[in-house]
Amino acid sequence: MKKTFARILFWDDPRLRTPAEQMACDEALAGVAEAPVLRTYRWAEPAVTFGYAQRLQNVQNLANGRPVMRRWTGGGTVFHGHELTLGLAIPASGAFTCLSSAQIYQAIHEALLPAIRQILPNAKLVSLEDCRCGPVCFESPVAYDIVAGPRKILGGALRRSRQGVLYQGSLHADISPLALAEELADSVSPIQNLPALENAGAALVSQRYGDPTWLNLR
């Protein structure tokens, strides 16, 4: 079966970063990758991220004291803890980015679904009639999220820019990060330019995510 990408660069990031550092590293992927790149990571402590257009006060009311951080991508409020989090950057040079945002979201989740079904055979994409509205992402499935029974397993958000597309997702299933990368592409290579990524991420923490102006944008 044809994979979504011919080649993908893979970074299973072992470092437990602050929420600002996590968001900065994901955004940095879009600026330095010469091919699609998947970053997988986990969290040092419970935290909450929220979509670019969300209002901080509304999120803080839900967060119950947890650290909060505004994402560069859209979407709702996501509570992070023990899940595996994904950052996938797709350069603008690829034909994939000519698709609509809904088509990109669907294609990514369709590609990851076989790996999830290895652990959860009843996992499926959410249909339009199964969608539910609400501010908290994992209580409100949208079209093309992945669920297993009544439980949402994978949800994400996108950001389109001149550099390409950034997808950020949260996966609530015990699946090998490498298995996810292998479902996305025919060829998986470890990313080589980590110093450049780390430097770009550190610059974004200084310029954006570590600045209270970003958090208080709305």
Architecture overview:
The chain has 218 residues and is α/β, with parallel strands linked by helices. The chain has a single domain, classed as BirA Bifunctional Protein, domain 2 (2-Layer Sandwich), CATH 3.30.930.10. It is built from six helices and eleven strands. The strands form two sheets. The chain has an eight-stranded mixed β-sheet with strand order 7-8-9-10-6-2-1-11, sandwiched between helices. Strands 4-3-5 form a three-stranded mixed β-sheet, sandwiched between helices. Strand 8 and strand 9 form a beta hairpin. Helix 3 packs across helix 4. The relative contact order is 0.23.
Which key phrases capture this entry?
single chain, 218 residues, alpha/beta, BirA Bifunctional Protein, domain 2, eight-stranded mixed β-sheet, three-stranded mixed β-sheet, 32% helix, 29% strand
Topology, please?
Elements: E1 5-12, H1 19-32, E2 37-41, E3 47-50, H2 56-63, E4 68-70, E5 77-80, E6 84-91, H3 101-119, E7 123-125, E8 146-148, E9 151-161, E10 164-171, H4 177-184, E11 185-190, H5 194-209, H6 212-215
Parallel strand pairs: 1-2, 1-11, 3-4
Antiparallel strand pairs: 2-6, 3-5, 6-10, 7-8, 8-9, 9-10
Helix pairs in contact: 1-5, 3-4
